[in-house]
Amino acid sequence: MSEADNPPAASGTFTVPRHVAIIMDGNGRWAAARGLPRAEGHRRGVEALRRTIRAAGEIGIKIVTIFSFSAENWSRPASEIGELMGLLRRFIRNDLAELHKSGVRVRIIGEREGLDPDIARLLVEAEELTKDNDNLTLVVAFNYGARQEIARAARRIAAEVAEGRMKPSDVALETVARFLDAPDLPDPDLIIRTSGEQRLSNFLLWQSAYSELVFLPTYWPDFDRAALEGAIREYQQRERRFGGLVAKTGS
Ligand code: IPE
Ligand code: IPE
Ligand code: MG
Q1: How far is the CA of 227 from the centre of ligand 3 (A)?
Q2: Domain with 26 in it
Q3: Which of 24, 34, 187, 220 is 20 to 30 A away from residue 200, measured at CA?
């Protein structure tokens, strides 16, 4: 049975979103507000991430997707990019064993080509070590851009057609979905963005078609279990109609 077949977990009378995606934004502004270097905001952001993964597991969320580095973030100063890459390396080295012990499966979406070989190796190691875990799936969007992901899918579908394995008329919505980076995962029920910005910044554009969006003023380093629960309560007030006339649960 794939994850897509599981009904969303019920908590009391309310439905806990099965898949929550988070745009972890506001590290730099958190630091600036305290007169600290942006790097300190990123370091505190990693602590917020640890809290969030723990809380998500306890709440009964099955999939958490985090936007950790966008395809467009390469336009930042080299020093900040170096800092962010260092944090990713340290996060995998220090936290992987603990995540594995708690039954977290780590998956990565985004472009792998062109990454530093040591980072590419760490990503594979994280996925390999945890591939049989099923308490919580942590999807890390790294070097990720949604338009790039859709373009990659289009290139692969075009190759199938060119090689005669598929006809243009075979290309349905499900076909496109099948060629995305994590085709077996259900779409996010809820997307949270911290820091007060109200945009998707090239995150999960295909998968967010019917996601509920919650924008919080909190800067990411201040995010905690209470903030996550607040966003879930907001989600629970929403009526998801998927174009129809009656409310439905989950995708
Ligand atoms: C989010 O915080 C982390 C990444 C984008 C990697 P920012 O670094 O974007 O912080 P702000 O938005 O400048 O405050
Ligand atoms: C989105 O945040 C990317 C991540 C959180 C990793 P940005 O800070 O890069 O987005 P913009 O530039 O404000 O849209
Ligand atoms: Mg930002």
Answers
A1: 18
A2: 17-236
A3: 34
Asked whether 25 and 76 are in contact (CB, 8 A), the reply is no
- Give the pTM: 0.94
Whole-number Å distance, alpha carbon 25 to ligand 1 midpoint, is: 5
Ligand 2, atom nearest to 220 Cα: 5
19-23 and 63-70 strand pairing: parallel
143 noted as active-site residue: no
Distances from the Cα of 251 to the Cαs of 19, 119, 138, 211, 241, in angstroms? 10, 33, 19, 9, 11
pLDDT attached to residue 74: 98
124 within some domain: yes
Kindly state whether residue 172 falls inside one of the protein's structural domains: yes
Whether residue 218 lies inside any domain: the answer is yes
| C-alpha distance from residue 5 to each of 35, 183, 188, 214 (Å) | 48, 14, 14, 25
Q: Of the listed 25, 181, 187, 189, which one is catalytic?
A: 25
Provide the domain count of the chain.
1
Residues of the chain with pLDDT under 50: 1-4, 10-13
Mutate which of 73, 108, 202, 205 for ligand 2? The one with the most ligand atoms within 8 Å of its CB, which is: 73
pLDDT one-digit tens code per residue, 183-228: 999 999 999 999 999 999 999 999 999 999 999 999 999 999 999 9
Q: Is residue 57 part of a domain?
A: yes
